[in-house]
Each structure stands twice: as structure tokens, then as C-alpha cells.
Amino acid sequence: MSTGFSSSSCRFADYFVICGLDTDSGLEPDELSGENFEQSPLRRTFKSKVLAHYPENVEWSPFDQDAVGMLCMPKGLSFRTQADSHEPQFHSFIITREDGSRTYGFALTFFEEVTSKQICSAMQTLYHMHNAEQYDILHTPGTEEARPSSGAQLHAAPSISRLQRFNSYDISRDTLYVSKCICLITPMAFAQACHKVLEQLHQAVTSPQPPPLPLESYVYNVLYEVPLPPAGRSLKFSGVYGPVVCQRPSTAELPLFDFPMRKMFELLGVENVLQLFTCALLEIQILLYSQHYQRLMTVAESITALMFPFQWQHVYVPILPASLLHFLDAPVPYLMGLHSNGQDDRTKLELPQEANLCFVDIDNHFIELPEDLPQFPNKLEFIQEISEVLMSFGVSPEGNVHCTEGPAKIKGFRSADMVSDKRNGNLASSPLNSYLLRENQTIARLQALVKRTGVSLEKLDVKENASSNKDLKMQCDEEELKMHQLNIQVREVFANRFTQMFADYEVFVIQPSQDKESWFSNRDQMQNFDKASFLSDQPEPYLPFLSRFLETQMFASFIDSKILYHDDEEKEHTLRVFDARVDKIRLLNVRTPTLRTSMYQKCTNIDEAEKAIEMRLTKIDHTALHPHLLDMKIGQGRYEQGFFPRLQSDVLSSGPTSNKWAKRSAPAQWRRKDRQKQHAEHLYLDNDQREHLECLFPELQLLVALDYYWFSQSFRPCIKSVKVDAKYIQEARNLGTTIRQPKLSNLSPSVIAQTNWKFVEGLLKECRNKTKRMLVEKMGREAVELGHGEVSITGVEENTLIASLCDLLERIWSHGLQVKQGKSALWSHLLHYQESKEKRDATPAGLGPPGIIHDTERRKSDAGCAMPPLKISLIQDMRHIQNISEIKTDVGKARAWVRLSMEKKLLSRHLKQLLSDHELTKKLYKRYAFLRCDDEKEQFLYHLLSFNAVDYFCFTNVFTTIMIPYHVVIIPSKKLGGSMFTANPWVCVSGELAETGVLQVPKNTLEITFECQNLGKLTTVQMGHDNSGLYAKWLVECVMVRNGITGHTYKFPCGRWLGKGVDDGSLERILVGELVTASTENEDRMCRTPPMQQSPGMMRRFVTISPNSKPKLNTGQIQEGVGEAINGIVKHFHKPEKERGSLTLLLCGEYGLVWALEQVFQHGFKSPRLFKNVFIWDFLEKAQVYFESAEQSQVTQDENYQTRVRHFCRFMRAISSTPRNIGKDGKFQMLVCLGARDHLLHHWIALLADCPITAQMYEDTALLKDHSLVNSLIRVLQTLQEFNITLEASLVKGIGI
Fold first, then answer.
1. What is the pLDDT of residues 482-514, one digit of tens each?
2. With the CA atoms of 268, 272, 277 and 280 taken in that order, what torsion angle do they form, in degrees rounded to the nearest 10?
3. Where is the PLAT domain (predicted)?
């Protein structure tokens, strides 16, 4: 990404560098590049050196010899003979210095003949040694038995042919060539211009005719006489053979970007690019893989440029030198590029961690994605819009899979071949990358589109790539213009997506109330963006992506910069451009700015952006001085054809003293730096924030970097302007100064140990921040349920936070692994533990049912509970996960196991048990690994323990389709035991997701275990019996139900009779449940979860069994009860849908609406005669008879009254005639629920208050006879009218209304 450059420089290039073979030091093997010594010497790599660089040094950009040498030739020197190809290769690279500023390198690597006799004979010697070794290897097994027979001669033949193949260099026959590199180090990334300059310089030494001027003149010109073009201007200067043009966007345009995006789309295809883009936005670890360095750089720069206005905040190393491969172990987000040798396939690549890795095999059109990657909003329309742009330039949206094989020609290109093409990775069975399959929606829509545009996807003629055109004349400017046009069009389409998605982001930015200093020091406690409100405005399909994106570092830094820079003058370039676009959209859109729509809006300002570039390229604003003869001594400046010489350093060591572009006085430079800090270009100048993050120098980069990464996780300083915030910058810088690291070449054990120590500290800090964030969110919601604070978490966001915790655990478990096995390091460790534990437990001790506490332990728990808690067992929880057929991958299993452990409140305990096997941990992890640092490990487990303070249902709510075993126990009353009970009982269990249907329970045991699809959180149990036998009366205490996987136990209190002629004559009841908490005695062993809400208690039982003993509530208490019940329902509907609890509990649970109205009707009810119970239902039935007879006797009443009467009677008849034997109280409950559903309760209360039956059955003091109290009751009940109440099926079963 073309971000911060060395802003003191005003010259086009800072250095010209030559790298190659140092004949004085001879051939030195490059051990750090990890090459294999079994390879033939021509395939090995040798150390390259920086042979010369001009000038010696410039003050604003100190020359870093190690970094430049390593990146100019990342694989060291290569040798070839005349039989191999010698095509020059161009690549670019980035160096991020300590102060966060970047410089760019552009390198051209070519081959020169080796003239040194010593080097040639050294190569010959290496071959003799190599061949001898190979001969020994081939003949070792068979030497003893080999006899000079015809068979033996036949056997030896293949060995000789293999030796000939090994022996590919003969000093007398072959010419030896070695790689050399010329390079420009520049402050800004003008890739095309630098490519032309280097190509023409190389052409000058290889062409038969010498160039018009000595090489020094051209190098001097580009170093000292060519300025950087000013913003919004174009510049032309002279190369050796032709003009070179570069142009720079103005401060109102998208930042500078000069790499060919076309290449990325040809290599990967639109679908893969969009997936990679999504991974980058979510800060997933990304590893690019290619045998071409320039491809790595092009893809990395393109992806980060498309993120505008956001910036990659983490480790950014587009070309990772072979000597630094151990940094793939870094447990932080990174974007790195790894060079492949073109021979090994993906399977041989050992990567330290893959659980959250996006692996991109660029050469083979293949991308491997992490699991659970959310879809980018409006993905199909977005792909279509990008595809239209690409097709207008002759680029196939599918990409050109065969672009490794020469000029790009996509002719007769069939998707059937693609599907069978294994290299492409889009296997027919994989839904992930099946973009090329005909059945795919995307391709179908694209085909419809191309029919309209008249282009055929089958036969797209693509122009030959400019890069494959090796004609050494000037490349036509039209080709370059096309590149700029395609780049800007694609970038505008991407930028428009963010402008649309975040058009109203400013509304949700929380400006701090305190001054900058205290804001900065309390940064980690501050909320800077109202995420919940922003997400609540978004269309549902956007939420999975957006909720994760809002948690990223890049989004936090973007908002921080918005807070730090209030006025336009101070705003950094990116933010200013983005805000201008947002303002424009708001003006164009008539709709209210905060009203979101998922309607796709295409990009409209492509033409304008394209015109600006065309203007600059058609009318050149500045022309630099032409190259000229320098003051050189006679004989200088001559060189041999075919060899790039060392140039004359005396003439190149300094520039002209009078040149206005040369050195400036220091204060002026600072002023310029200050201005450019604000106006800079690509200059997402977030330099100070990332100053140590992206350094390429390994230890500096990854130590200071990580220090910075974790520092920024909590503080996110986004301070960019020297003028505004010098003090904070210094603070930020000081964080890194404690660990000044040695240079690249020093990879001593102590340095590596220190690197890893920083990793360990950083992981611990990240764990602390994550657990704190998750607890605050969770407690925040529970506080709302208690009436405090604002709700700020949604189901989507909770899932996001848990997914990021899983990712952190994977990174911790990947750190310092001895040998990687499988994609999930955590699951791999668990499997090892399971294996060793099962070996140890293979003794015949463990009899009895698995997962149940043995009898000795069971007695300790409360005997009345009749359902012992599940045994805590890490292995058992693993087996549950292994038995879930829907989870296919190791990463998925690890995540499911973490979710299950969190729901059971056992995560910390399980991990502690896993890590208590020290022998296993030692076997799997290196000494420096996080999991072997005892203090940090203890603190880490302690942080995880804090999750036990809150309830997560993150397993139950996510795995909704899995089969779960449930255990049901019916507990009859101890006093009136069910030993004589003769009827056959049944139950039906209902949860938030499903219900079981009727299950017969054996009457001798009264318990049953069954398996069914996940019911979700349990809400009700319907239970009853068939009234058979002599003694069909049954007093039931409660029903217990346990989830066999999560261990959650629900208690459904009953305390009522079931039987004809006893209690209210009910044969079945609907019970509302609550989660059981553990008793203190066995709290250690049980899976605890506090109750969500209480359930119908004993009060109703007292009311109906012996009315005389019922607790008398006064009218004030009854009104309060009704108010609370209604309030609970109102709050329920004001929560986000995913966060609502059970409505059934609020209606039928303890102190729910049914209970409250029961109190209303009980108040002042005339006491019945001795031994006879009268129920509310009796009163309602009498009222119904009265209304029906009044209707028949044609008593004249108004229309409204008659409608209400008809409704009331219809519901009463329907409930009375139900085939269910639910008893009188059950019928009353059903009436209240139906009345609430259809918003009729307040009408019915009004009817009943005026009914003569009330006068007969209630005392004068009764609530129903007090008009003012009845009116206030009616008003309270009317508040339910605005809510759409949906009843659980179990409550209204058998009613056809």
C-alpha cells in the first residue's frame, strides 16, 4: 500500500544500488535462506552483496545496507548456464523505517557471464562433490550383491542417466552466468516509471551500440535532477532511450497507486479477490505465495490500496526474505508474501498456524479461506459491477488461470476444464470457490450481463500483456494509460462501496467530553463509536460482516483520527477525501442520512476520476532537466558490453549545489514535513501509530512491532501531525525505545528469545483486553435487564466476540509449536491429551454409565433433586463434539469445544487440566512457547475464569440442528407418594427452537432419556396421564429435564394434583421452567448457570388447594403486580430480537401476567362453603352463561359491547370444548394468553366489571367492584396493544382460534 513516504525528500529517487557477486569473498552458501544442500549447485543460493550504492548517504533517508541487500535479491545469488533462460526480472519492495516512514525499492535482476576463473572452478568442484555424494546414495544398497552379470548392467543404467542429469555444469563446455541486480530506492511508489528507467539502463549495457551518454549521466539525472511531481501534476524526464512520464493525484483524489491491478484480477479472478479483500478487512492473517516477487508485491499493494479509506494496521511484509521464515510464527495479524520455488506444492508447506489463515496461491489461482468467513455486503452486485469494469478492458472476471504459461489469451476457455483443473483449487465439490461453475448464481448473472454487452465469456480475446512484451523499444503510452484507467475505475468502485456503507458514520462517532490529553491517557476505556446504534440501522444481511469489521484495529484507528482532527485543515488526506465523498452522497440522496437501504447503488464518479488522470497524461505539467555530460576524467565512463559496471562514485556522490530540488535548510525541511504529514498522498500517514508495526527489519519489526500492536490494541493512538500532537507522538515512540534491536544480520538466540518474550507478553495483554471487552458487553446487557444503562450488544456481536476469542486461543496454541499437526493447534493438543488419557484410563476401574457421577459421589448431592449433576469431564466434552457429524474440520471442532466449555462455565478449568499434563506440553512446545511460561499461563487462565460470572448460550444457540440427549425425571410428592398410582404418564418438552411431541414415561421409574434435535433453551413441559386404572390421582412436585451435552438442568415446578375429581380436575398441566443453580455443597462439580427467570411457585397451589390459607394481597400490591408483569412484557419487546428471553415465562411464569390477573380475580372472591373449592373459571363460565342469555333476550346494547361479548363467549366456548384435560386453572391460563395475543384483555375486564354475576360472587371491597381501580387496570392492559404477541404452541394446543 502506497502509504507514508520519507517526506523530507523532494527528489524522485534517493539511491541507485548495484547488488551481485563479490568476487573477492567468493562463493558463500546462503544458509539463512534455508536451501537444501541435496540440490545441485546450480539450484542452490549463495550470498549476494551490495556492490555499490550512490550517493553514500542522504540525511532524510539513511541507507540500510542489510535490508536493501536482502530485498533486492531475497533468495541470494542464482547461477545459470547458457542452457537456461536469462530473462531479466523486475520486482519492487518496501522498507519501513523506524520512524514509520516508508521507502520503496524497484529492482531489475538480470544475468551476467562469470569471468572469474576462481568462481568457475569453485562451481566445478562443488559439482564433483555433489555427484560423488549422489553416486554413493544411488549405489549404497546394492554394492555388496552387485555382480558383473547382464542383470547388474541393466540395473546400473538408470543410475548413470541420473548422474548425467545431475552433472549439469562442465567448466570446459559450459558458460556460467550469475544474477546481478540494479535498483532504485525512491520515496514514492512510481513503479512504472522506475521499471522503464531500469529497463533502459540495462538495455544500454546489453545493446551492441553504446548509449549516447555515459551511464553516470543518466543515473546522476534521476538521482539529482528529477524532482518528485507536485500533487495533482505530471512530470516527464528522459531515460536512456526515451521519455519517462509519471503523474501524481491531487489532494482531492484517491491516493497514489501505480501497480497494475489488472494483473491481480487475471491471476486470481474477481471472486477470489473479493474473498481475499474480506479477509484483509477483518484483519485475518494473510499469506501470499508465488514464485514471482513482483506478483507478491502487486497483490499485496492492490489489496491494501482497495481498502481506502481504511489502512492495514499490522505487520506488512509483501516479500518475506527466506531468512526470516520463523516470523510466520508471529501470533498477530499479518499480510506477508512468501516466495515459492515452483516445485513444492501447498501440502509440503509447513505453516505454524492455519486456523485463522487466508492462504493465497497466486500462481495457481487458488485461495484457502478460514472458516466462518462472513460474506461481503451485496457481494453478487459488487462482483457484477467490478466484472463490468474488467470486461470493458478485456479482462475475464474469472481470471486467467494459465497466465503462468505466457501471454494471456483466454480463448475457448471452458469452465468444465477449470473444474477438473486441480491446480486451480476450485474443485467441483467445494462451494467456496465454485465461481467458475455454470450453476453458480454469480456466473449466471454475469452471463446475462455479457449478453447485453455483446461480449462472450467463452471467447474473450485479451490483449497481450505489456509485461510479456519484451521488445526493447519504449512501451506504448496507450498501454500505461489503460493501466491507469483500469486501476482508477476499479478503485472508485471499491471506494464507493465504503462511501455507501458508511455514509452516515459521523452521526455515530462519540466525541470525547474531556481534553485531548485525558482522552489519550484513558483511550482503552473510551467508547469512540456507537456500534450498537450503527448496526441497528443496517440491513440484516450486512450484520455478520459489519459486526466483525467494527471490532478491527483499522476501523478503530479510522474513528480515532476522526476524533483527533476536527477541522478540515488538520485532517489527514485519506479522511479529508472520504469525508468530501460522504458529504457529496448526502447532498445527492434525498433520503434521510441515517435511513439505511440494502439497495445496491453503483459508482457514479468514475468518469470524473478518469478525466483527471487523462488530463495530466495528455498535458505534461513539468519537464525535468535532460541528462548531460558530467565532469569526468578521460577514460572514465567506459565499460564492457554485457556487463553492468561499477559507476564512478566521485561524480555520483553529491548533486549540484545550485539545484533548487537539492538539500534544504533544516527548518524548511521540517515545515515541509509538517505540511506533507497533513496533505500527504497515499499518505494515509498513520506512521506514528504503526511506526514499529510494519518495519521490515525482523527483530525491530516484530518486537517493536508487536509491542506496538498490543499497545495500539488498547490505546490506538492515531496521531499524525507533528504540529498538533508532538507530545503524544513522543510518548508513542518511547514505547519502542526500550528495545533497540540489532540489525537484520544479527539473528542470535538471545534476540530470537527476546522476540518470543514480546509475543508472550503481547498475547497475555490481548487476552486481558478481550475478556474485559466481552464481560463489559455481557454485563452491560444484564444491567439493562435490571434497569440500568443502555443495551449495547446484539446476538451477531456476541458471536463476533466469541469467534475472535477462538482466534486468540488458536494463536496462543500455535506459538512455539515443535511440529505442526492439523490446521488447529488447540484441537491437535486436545487429541494428544485424549489419546494419553485414554491409554492411562484403560484400566477396568471406570464402570457405570459414562458422564454420571458414581453412587458414592451422588449421595452428597441433594437427594430431593433426584437428578445428579453431570460429571465434569474434558474428554467427555470432546467426545460430544466428535460425535457431531455436522462439524467436519479440526478448526470447527476446536471452536465448538470452546463454545461448549464457555456455556458450561468450564473453559478455564478444562484448559488448566489440559495444561496440567506437563510432559505432553513439553513434548509439543518449545521452551519459549506461551504455554510453557508458567506465570503468564496462570494469569491467562485467571482471565478466562472471569467468564464464569456471566451466562453464555453460545453452543446451544449456534448448533441448532444437532442431536442432543435429554433426560427427564418426574418427581411425585413425597407425602402423597405415587406408589399406588396406576395411570400411564406422558410428557412433551418445548424449547425456543422446537418441541418433542408426546413421550410416554414408564410409570414404575418415572424417568426417560431420549435424543432429539436441539430444542434450544427449554421453556415449558406439558405433562399428564391417561386416567387409567383404579387410582388415577397423582400429586406431582416437579419435573426435571437435563441437556446431556451442556449439562443444563431445568426444573418445572408443579405442586398440583392431576386427576378427575381432585384439585381443579385437570389431567394435564403446562409447566414453565427455570434453570437450576448448583447448591453450594456440590458447586465445584456441577455445571452452574444462574436462573434466567423464576417460575410459577407454590402460591397458586395454596390459592386453589385451601383457599382459606391463601396470602391476602391488598389492592396496592395487586396493582403493582399487574404493573410489573406488563412492564416485563414491554421491556421484552424493546430488546433486539436476538436478545429476547422467553415470552412464555413473562406470561405464565411466577409473577407473570396470568398470576397477576389471577390475583385481580381472587381479590374479594366470596368464601365458598366448607370443603368446596370455587375457581375463577367457575365465575367466568357463569358470566358466559349470563352474556349468552342476555344476547338471546335481545337486551339492546351498543355495537362495541356486543362485539366484545361475542368475542368473549367465542373464546370461552373454544377453550371449554378443547379435547385437552387441562383443568380449570389451565383453562384460565389459556384464556389470558389468547386475550393477550388478540389484544382483548382490557375489553373483557370492562365487560366482567359491569356484569351482574360479579355483584353476586364478589364482596363489596373487591377490586373488580372499584371503578377507578378497574379503569387504571384497563389502561395498563391497553399498553399491550402495540405488541405482536406470538404464543408458544404448547400454550394453545387444541384451540382453533
1. 888 999 999 999 999 998 888 878 878 877 776
2. -90
3. 964-1072
Q: In the structure, what pLDDT confidence band is assigned to residue 390 with cuts at 50, 70 and 90? A: very high
Q: Which residues of 147-177 are buried (b: 16+ CB within 10 A; e: fewer)?
A: eeeeeeeeeeeeeeeeeeebeebeeeebebb
**pLDDT confidence of 280, banded at 50, 70, 90?**
very high
Residues 6 or more apart whose CB falls under 8 angstroms from that of 1201 comprise 1247
Between CA 1033 and CA 1025 the distance in angstroms is 9
pTM metric for this prediction:
0.69
The answer to whether the beta carbons of residues 1211 and 1292 sit under 8 Å apart is: no
Q: Tell me: the pLDDT tens digits for 656-684?
A: 765 444 443 333 343 344 434 433 433 34
- Contact (CB, 8 A) for 317 and 334: yes
Q: Is the sign of the CA dihedral 1074, 1079, 1084, 1090 positive or negative? A: positive
Query: Counting Cβ atoms within 10 Å, is residue 54 exposed (0-12), middle (13-18) or buried (19+)?
Result: buried
Flag whether pLDDT at 763 surpasses 90.
Answer: no
Report pLDDT for 1084.
40
State the cell numbers at 601: 447503488
User: What pLDDT was estimated at residue 987?
Assistant: 92
Other beta carbons within 10 angstroms of residue 665's beta carbon come to 8
- What are the backbone dihedrals phi and psi of residue 1087, each rounded to the nearest 5 degrees, phi first? -80, 110
- SS3 sequence, 928-984? CCHHHCHHHHHHHHHHHHHHHHCCCCCCCCCCCCCEEEEEEEEEECCCCCHHHCCCC
Tell me the β-bridge partners of 93: 105
Q: Which residues contact 49 (CB under 8 A, 6 or more apart)?
A: 19, 20, 21, 22, 25, 69
Note the pLDDT of residue 138: 65
Using only C-alpha atoms, the chain has a radius of gyration, in whole angstroms, of 39
Report the candidate in 373, 375, 421 with the shortest Cα–Cα distance to residue 398. Answer: 421
Residue 794: name the closest of 543, 554, 545 by CA: 543
∠ Cα 1132 1134 1136 (to 5°): 90
Measured CA distances, 545 to 282, 539, 540, 848 (Å): 8, 11, 10, 47
- pLDDT value of residue 794: 53
Report the alpha-carbon distance of residue 1222 to residue 1180 in Å, rounded. Answer: 16
pLDDT of residue 716: 39
pLDDT (tens digit per residue) in 189-242:
999 999 999 999 888 888 888 888 888 888 988 888 899 888 888 888 888 888
Q: How far from chain centre, in Å, is Cα 787?
A: 33
Q: In what order do the strands lie in the sheet with 315-317?
A: 315-317, 334-339, 285-290, 357-361, 366-368
Residue whose C-alpha is closest to residue 795's, from 379, 1285, 1135: 1135
Q: Which are the contacts of 1229, defined by CB distance < 8 A and separation ≥ 6?
A: 1070, 1148, 1154, 1291
Grouping H, G, I as helix, E, B as strand and the rest as coil, residue 1271 is helix
Q: Which three cell numbers stand for residue 725?
A: 500532537
Evaluate whether 1152 touches 1229 at the Cβ level (below 8 Å): no
Q: Which residue has the cell 474428554?
A: 875
Residue 1180, SS3?
Answer: helix
Residue 9's pLDDT is what?
A: 61
Q: Which neighbouring-strand residues pair with 1220?
A: none
- Would the pLDDT of 458 be above 50? no
Q: Which residue has the cell 556522490?
A: 653
Q: Which residues of 734-752 are buried (b: 16+ CB within 10 A; e: fewer)?
A: ebbeebebeebeeeeeeee
Q: What pLDDT is recorded for position 561?
A: 84
DSSP of 42-78: GGS-B--EEEEEESS-BTTB---HHHHHHHHSTT-B-
Q: Report how far Cα 223 is from the mean position of its chain's Cα atoms.
A: 44
The secondary structure of 478-514 as a DSSP string is: HHHHHHHHHHHHHHHHHHHHHHHHTTTGGGGB---SS
